[in-house]
């Protein structure tokens, strides 16, 4: 299905870019001071606002929608990675350093696993941004996909088609949220013992 | 093979103040020696230990470890903290193997050694648990096993038993003595507890506060393993306590800022007034 392919591509791209941006901000103080406020500002821009820009840039095609999806969720992912890594328990890092961890091995063995809970909630948030951006993009500029079918329903004044598609959108969104991210979260919370009452 | 602390001073610069935490510390730790650094809370014990560990930078002076100046943290000076600092995303056995994994030791060798040290702290049954499933004392024992696996000659401990209840603490103190007798590491052990210091150490270094400096050294030549109820230990503890009492009051005065005055026998009865002990 066209929608699935788009969101898969767009979301994967946003994760990759988000991780790089997040890591770079954590690693380099200069970037942190100058780029972080910019990202925070861009995050408040609804992804649909990127559509005119992206249509002008790419034309009315697949790339335009994927661009909107990517840009819609990249910032959420990078902010989550940044704050997750900044807020880990400093004791973990100190202990690891006395056992000989530094540079890449410190990131790989300690900082990334320690911030995994917040990284996953960032990815989850990124997913919901991506899903919204997909629908918005498809409604305006696509020739197939869920959003476009929704618009066809409107043009035909077919309320049952419109409602049906809306329900499908909700169910798909919830399903991914619960089945993929929900599982990961439960798994981590159990390991860390965060669910003890 | 030793750690030499030469003229270490440390000041912290905060927004509106400069705090001189350590001033001109000179001390030497020898191979295989168990040394306790004893002082009131806030006198700079942790700061000194962190400087030796390379986790904190000194303001002046230097630390020389086995002939080489300390430039940063490293696995030749493993630290055990007051909190266990174990990783919640790893099982007990993987936590114990962590340092060896960083050092690139092959899997089989790692596992074998981790099991040996888990056995030493009596926790082999719990190797596949996650950290949150263990009690505070068990966590600290895992941290000890993890520190031992790196075969460093120097082990730095910062009040590792201070957060534990007293029964657990006693058990761990005895285990640590046993482990030290077996491994003969140079242990530098920070504590604010006099009884703990005399129980464990060959040498107790008493620190004074504001600024932190070395006040006096005591050599303790009693047979091991020592038991906490040993009467000679009680004598020594009373001796050292006298030295410490003054410092505790000094810190209390500085920290409570209003005109806090100590009643004479608040901290510990003078040995004159305590005629019964030891008869
Ligand atoms: N990061 C810091 N910034 C400012 N002051 C500090 C810092 N760390 C320690 N200090 C000061 O150093 C003093 C000694 O601290 P510390 O070494 O933790 O004492 P101890 O371990 O003996 O209880 C404290 O009273 C505090 O004023
Ligand atoms: Mg301390």
Automatic annotation (TrEMBL), chain A:
Arranged from A to Z, the UniProt key words for this protein are: Cell membrane, Membrane, Transmembrane, Transmembrane helix, Transport
User: Subcellular location, in the record's words?
Assistant: Cell membrane
In the UniProt record, which is one GO cellular component term?
plasma membrane
**Membrane is among the record's keywords:** yes
The ABC transmembrane type-1 domain extends over 1-180
Classification via Gene3D superfamilies? MetI-like
**How is it placed in the membrane, per its record?**
Multi-pass membrane protein
Protein's name according to its UniProt entry: NitT/TauT family transport system permease protein
| Organism this protein belongs to | Pelosinus propionicus DSM 13327
What residues form the membrane-spanning segments?
A: 6-26, 64-85, 106-123, 159-181
Matches recorded under CDD domains: TM_PBP2
Q: Which family does the entry's similarity section mention?
A: Belongs to the binding-protein-dependent transport system permease family.
> Per the UniProt entry, what are the Gene Ontology biological process annotations, in alphabetical order?
transmembrane transport
Q: Which InterPro entries match?
A: MetI-like, MetI-like_sf
Q: Name the PROSITE patterns for this protein.
A: ABC_TM1
From TrEMBL, chain B:
Q: Does the keyword ATP-binding apply?
A: yes
State a single Gene Ontology molecular function.
ATP binding
Give the top-rank taxon of the lineage listed in the UniProt record for this protein: Bacteria
A single Pfam family it belongs to is ABC_tran
The reply to whether Nucleotidyltransferase figures as a keyword in the UniProt entry is no
Q: Which residues form the ABC transporter domain?
A: 3-234
Gene3D superfamilies associated with the record? P-loop containing nucleotide triphosphate hydrolases (3.40.50.300)
Question: Do you know which InterPro entries this protein is assigned to?
Answer: AAA+_ATPase, ABC_transporter-like_ATP-bd, ABC_transporter-like_CS, ABC_transporter_ATP-bind, P-loop_NTPase
Family annotation (PANTHER family): ALIPHATIC SULFONATES IMPORT ATP-BINDING PROTEIN SSUB, TAURINE IMPORT ATP-BINDING PROTEIN-RELATED
| Annotated protein name in UniProt | NitT/TauT family transport system ATP-binding protein
Task: Give the organism the record lists.
Answer: Pelosinus propionicus DSM 13327
Lineage, uppermost ranks: Bacteria, Bacillati, Bacillota, Negativicutes, Selenomonadales
